[in-house]
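Ticket #4471: structure export looks truncated?
Reporter: QA, pipeline team
Priority: medium

Steps to reproduce: submit the single chain below to the structure queue and open the exported record.
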Amino acid sequence: MAIAALFLPEASDYIGSSAAETVSLACPVTKSEFILGLQKEAKREHLPINVGIHEPAEGGKKVKNTLIWINGEGEISQSMSVRSGLISVRYQKLHLFDVDIKDGPVLKESNNVEAGMEVVPPFETVLGRVGLMICFDLRFPETSLALKRQDAQIITYPSAFTVHTGKAHWEPLLRARAVETQSYVVAAAQVGAHNEKRVSYGHSMIVSPWGEVVAKLGGDSGEPEIATADIDLDLVKKIKREMPLLRRTWVAMALMFFLVWRKLMVCSDIYPEV
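Actual output as written to the record:
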């Protein structure tokens, strides 16, 4: 079977045991032995690689949790950014994992990670139009729907889910994002113990636009595993054609404007000068 692209998890370069270690280990892609090695292999095998990494943030006190696409020539692909023009295909994680669960994980990603500010438009690849998301973004359907509106056919969610949240939410969320966007969802996931503080859930998964799990790995951190699946763009087109999801978001917007207007009217009754 010919492999068209390789998808690796969030933070594939390392997972630090502390905020300080996470920041100290980050380096630019041009100096990262890990990324330079992936670029060399991508070029040698003519194999595009999607990989989650850390990059230094401005000021040196935080890092960026980013996702890049290395093409079959070993280059970090470029795409048009709304904010910056033509830039590298580099998505910076929007939603940071800040949780304090009783008898569960206590993690504050915002302590050492800078949040992203932009949804990168889907871009053309050998597999189809790919949209990039990362881990905790999975809980926010608005971002994946923004990619759907830009004709994404595949949406990635490389992750490092905790065991506690993964058991409860991982698969239902991935299947929901696939169904509502009518896209393939590819979720490469970290697995097993990274250090004495951190264990990841695993269960990497590929979900069809019909919500079917077409490939799945386990949650054990034994030998490395790879899940494969065929990406059928005709199926994507068929589902979108046969079940068009015409969103009537204007109804919710109209209600929101009405509530704001009513609140302003109440304020004007109490404070006539408003």
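Status: closed, not a bug. The export was complete when the record was re-opened. Leaving a note from the reviewer for reference: The first helix runs from residue 19 to 25.
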